[in-house]
Amino acid sequence: MKLLTKDTSRFLLLIFAITASVGSINHAKAESLGSVSHIHHVKVVANKVHVLTHEGLYELVGKNDMKLVGKEKIDVMGFASLGNVLIASGHPAVGSKMPNPIGVMKSLDGGST
Q1: Model confidence pLDDT, tens digit, residues 35-70
Q2: What number is the average pLDDT over the span 3-29?
């Protein structure tokens, strides 16, 4: 069995802290980890920690602060990446005017569009 590096250990601790902090909070807006109703996935893409939530795709920009990636809020149910190419699926978040279901979306610029 291979030992984890210090950076890997810190990252796993961060992931644990993220998932533990969201508990049963239920808000329609996610600006911090404490305001997310639940997290579907956490993934590092291009040295950025992406938090895929019921309220949208966010980038973790501080210990507890997040910013929305792109303009549309979707409940990100599926997610994959290859370099800066992001592929997501899901359904519209509360208040979105996107079709339901969304189907598969692809972004060539890290989620900005």
Answers
A1: 777 888 888 888 888 888 888 888 988 888 889 888
A2: 53
The CA distance from 36 to 66, in Å, is 10
Measured CA to CA in angstroms, residue 102 lies from 1, 77, 88 at distances of: 41, 11, 9
Looking at the domain assignment, is residue 73 inside a domain? yes
Residue 1 falls within a domain, yes or no? no
Question: Is residue 76 within 8 Å of 92, Cβ to Cβ?
Answer: no
Q: What is the tally of structural domains in the chain?
A: 1
Cα–Cα–Cα angle for 43, 22, 68, nearest 5°? 50
Question: Please, which residues have CB within 8 angstroms of residue 47's CB and are 6 or more apart in sequence?
Answer: none
- E strands, the chain, are 39-45, 48-53, 56-60, 66-68, 74-82, 85-92, 103-107
Closest CA relative to residue 53, chosen from 35, 84, 109: 35
pTM: 0.69
